[in-house]
Specification:
By secondary structure, the protein is of the alpha/beta class. It has a domain of about 190 residues. It is built from 15 helices and 14 strands. Strands 1-2-3-4-5-6-7-8-9-10-11-12-13-14 form a 14-stranded parallel β-sheet, with helices on one face. InterPro entries: LRR_dom_sf (IPR032675).
Length: about 400
């Protein structure tokens, strides 16, 4: 359902809505404005909703959901900016946990959730939640009013997620919420955490201290971890310690498959070097001009990783040229290459990649260099799936 007006103006009074509205289980709403007060009739008159996705809503919808939701609601997303799991996908998963929210999504950047109501919702569902995208950045109006950041630690110091598999969080003001999330994942007992993702100036040493005491994860992602504090060495040393821990795990314990570095200032030559010791990694993502230390060390890194990488993504990096593409050609298991805002490659280099990367199935290029129609046709003849946006 997509409408370009406030929710209450579109549906009117819920009791006058024709049809069996109380049987709705999957609701997606894109409106010009939906407030928590407008949402309440929908929640009251549609008690069987299992999946609720809202676009164009105010932050107080969390209060309405916290107040009126029941155990039927499994997936809740508001202004998410992510692909939200469908009910069909969720129904295919094995799940033997309690009823309650299993996935929650907040905005991807910008103003975050109203922290008290959002954390209250998480705590109520800590035994059932499997996926949490938690943007807890303080809304601008709170900062403008000079509101103090609440001290939630005494209230939430003993909470933990029993079934959490995918966690993405923003630290929030003063990193208060970050310490709570890190504390909460130490006791994931029913299943190990599969993905850990921290966004916007996370505390890297504190994260490393938590992860080396937890079960190994499959996916590690750090985004917008850039600081002007002169402590890059401290952060890079911590990351080296983490990767050394993963590299020394026994073969049965090694699970790390994907690494994402997006606009990070701690990816040094030492970080790349120890990363090559983790032979289970099959996918790497490097984004941002500050992310790759030098072209020479990066080439060595790719050469050492060439025997097990199946997917690479490079975006907005200066020194990615044809020399990097030549290294990719020699990767025997490489299937997917994604390039965004990579401007130092050439048309001939891309054609050489398509010609000589034996297992390449997918090539995605966006805002890199302009290709002639003949070159696009040439590449399409050699690679099964090609996406080119200029």
């Amino acid at each position: 359902m997509n409408v370009d007006c406030p929710l209450d103006a579109f549906i009117g009074e819920m009791e006058n809505l024709a049809g069996p509205y109380n049987t709705l289980i999957d609701v997606e709403l894109t409106t010009s404005c939906t407030t928590g007060q407008m949402l309440k009739p929908l929640l009251q008159y549609c008690p069987k909703i299992r999946r609720l996705c809202l676009e164009g809503c105010t932050l107080d919808v969390v209060d309405a959901v916290d107040e009126l939701y029941n155990d039927n609601l499994e997936i809740f997303a508001y202004n998410p900016g992510y692909e939200v799991t469908s009910l069909e996908e969720k129904d295919e998963e094995f799940y033997d946990g309690p009823r309650g929210l299993r996935e929650i999504y907040t905005p991807n950047g910008g103003d975050g959730a109203q922290t008290d109501s959002f954390l209250r919702l998480l705590r109520k569902n800590q035994k059932s939640l499997q996926t949490v995208y938690a943007n807890t950045q303080m809304p601008e109006e709170q900062e403008a009013h000079g509101e103090p950041y609440p001290n939630f630690i005494p209230v939430y110091e003993e909470w933990y997620f029993e079934r959490l598999q995918y966690l993405t969080y923003w630290p929030g003001a003063h990193n208060v919420v970050e310490s709570m999330f890190l504390q909460s994942i130490k006791s994931c007992v029913a299943t190990s955490l599969r993905m850990f993702s921290a966004v916007d100036k996370p505390n890297i040493p504190m994260i490393v201290n938590t992860l080396i005491k937890s079960l190994p994860v499959e996916i590690l992602s750090f985004s917008h971890a850039r600081f002007d504090d002169g402590n890059e060495y401290q952060r890079s040393s911590a990351i080296v310690q983490l990767f050394k821990y993963y590299a020394e795990l026994s073969p049965s314990e090694k699970t790390l498959k994907e690494i994402w570095f997006n606009y990070c200032d701690f990816v040094t030559d030492d970080v790349l070097d120890i990363l090559t010791e983790i032979k289970t990694i099959t996918r790497v993502n490097f984004t941002g001009k500050c992310t790759v230390p030098s072209d020479g060390s990066f080439l060595i890194f790719l050469q050492k990783m060439g025997h097990h990488l199946t997917e690479v993504m490079f975006a907005d990096i200066n020194h990615i040229g044809d020399d990097v593409l030549n290294v990719l050609c020699k990767m025997e298991h490489l299937k997917t290459v994604t390039l965004e805002l990579i401007t130092e490659i050439t048309e001939e280099g891309i054609k050489h990649l398509a010609d000589n990367t034996r297992g390449l199935c997918s090539l995605n290029m966006e805002e890199c260099i302009e290709l002639s129609d003949d070159s696009v046709s040439y590449i399409n003849e050699r690679v099964k799936n090609v996406k080119y946006v200029w």
